[in-house]
Specification:
8 strands; Porin; alpha+beta; 2 helices; 8-stranded antiparallel β-barrel
């Protein structure tokens, strides 16, 4: 009787572990970084910048996933835009939180795969204008001791925030080294943030990273 009970418990534990593994296999996560290129009218005001991207979601089928995507792009104002603002420095940071379904063109276990994605969600833009200022302080060194020093830092002159809707669309390539669960990906997406006044903000972040 005791052996039967132990066998039943082992069977239950094995089935539970199998279910957890299957559930975990349904989840996906990715992280990446790269450069961000402004397009259309934004290219007349911004330099090429950088971007970060975090994504996670649920694999509905072997090819279709429902993901939530968070991305951040930052670009400096170019010389023409700085001249209009009459400030020596400035940048634009944009983050977005979007629902992004992903569809793979080949079976998920393929060593090389291509996919398309697109989504809609919330976008936030921050425009910051800065100017360099000298800061007097005391610098201490274990060998030379303490002495006065002057550092140059960027002081924020003005900052403007905007929340609007927007969308993105694009695709990428995935590579599975040694058929592992971890995939290396490269991706490009067209991003468009709507605005109330003026042209919409458009840019193309190109991202490289890992997905598992």
């Amino acid at each position: 009787m005791k052996c039967r009970t132990e066998l039943v418990l082992l069977s239950v534990i094995f089935l539970a572990a199998s279910c957890v593994a299957q559930r975990a296999d349904r989840l996906n996560f990715s992280v990446g970084a790269g450069f961000s290129a402004p397009t259309e009218s934004a290219a007349n005001n911004l330099n090429t910048g950088w971007n970060l991207d975090f994504r996670g979601g649920y694999n509905i089928t072997r090819r279709l996933a429902a993901d939530l995507d968070f991305s951040y792009s930052r670009s400096n104002l170019n010389s023409a835009a700085l001249a209009r603002f009459a400030e020596p420095g400035g940048d634009v940071g944009i983050w977005s939180l979007t629902f992004n379904p992903v569809y793979r063109l080949l079976p998920a276990r393929s060593p090389v795969n291509a996919y398309v994605t697109g989504g809609f969600g919330l976008y936030h833009r921050n425009l910051t204008l800065t100017q360099p200022v000298a800061v007097n302080t005391v610098f201490c060194d274990p060998f030379f001791g303490c002495y006065p020093a002057t550092f140059t830092v960027n002081q924020v002159v003005a900052s403007f925030d905007t929340y609007k809707g927007g969308f993105n669309a694009g695709g990428g390539l995935e590579f599975r080294p040694f058929y592992s669960r971890v995939r290396i990906f490269s991706e490009a997406r067209y991003q468009r943030m709507f605005t109330t006044n003026g042209d919409d903000i458009t840019y193309v972040p190109v991202t490289f990273g890992l997905r598992w």
